[in-house]
Design goal:
single chain, 149 residues, mainly alpha, flat
């Protein structure tokens, strides 16, 4: 009698761990610690948890989509190796990186120039804004280069 051991797919494991750790960090960030040393970092932990939960959920959705439709997986693999698409993605990523690093540098210069201390909530929103702007630049460049090339 043949009983093959099936190894779980690494994508399923990574997606599950990412989703679980994201939910755990999000819940920990939502707990109100009465220690003043942890208070400024709770929003950051909550934001990281939300990000990880979204990424893990997306990975699980993709995994289950591809297990139901293996042709879609084959099509995605072929498209991911297209040189034109890779060039567009690399160039868009390069533009987004330049914007993100420039905004971060400008923010650091602004913080260094101010003599007053900034609130942690303001810093968190500025950093979150930099991440959103960087992602937006990436998507805009993808759309723009797709229509040009």
């Amino acid at each position: 009698m043949k009983n093959p051991k099936t190894n779980p797919n690494p994508e399923l494991i990574k997606g599950g761990i990412t989703l679980g750790s994201g939910i755990l960090l999000f819940v920990i960030g939502g707990i109100n610690f009465y220690s003043s040393t942890w208070q400024p970092f709770l929003h950051l932990v909550e934001g990281i948890g939300l990000f990880l939960a979204v990424v893990g959920g997306w990975n699980l959705i993709q995994y289950f989509r591809y297990t139901r439709n293996p042709e879609a997986l084959h099509k995605a693999r072929v498209e991911s190796m297209d040189e034109r698409k890779l060039w567009i993605q690399y160039r868009s990523g390069n533009n987004a990186f330049k914007i993100g690093i420039s905004l971060t540098y400008l923010f650091l210069l602004m913080v260094g120039a101010t003599e007053n201390s900034l609130s942690t909530d303001l810093i968190w929103w500025i950093l979150a804004g930099i991440v959103v702007i960087t992602g937006t630049v990436y998507v805009i460049c993808l759309v723009r280069y797709e229509s040009i090339y």
